[in-house]
Amino acid sequence: MRKDVLEGVLRHIMNDIQPNYAAMAKQYNCDYRTVKRYYEAGTKGEVEQIKK
Q: Where on the tree of life does the source sit, at the highest rank (predicted)?
């Protein structure tokens, strides 16, 4: 689990802002699909279930 990506995504969730997945992916040096997966899990409350 990427804690840095999770923190960034949770910041967007708390502020009720839709993130730009590509920009966040560049910032955290990961794929945009990873950021999207964390965002969708965070909005559903399934953050603990994210594995790889």
A: Bacteria
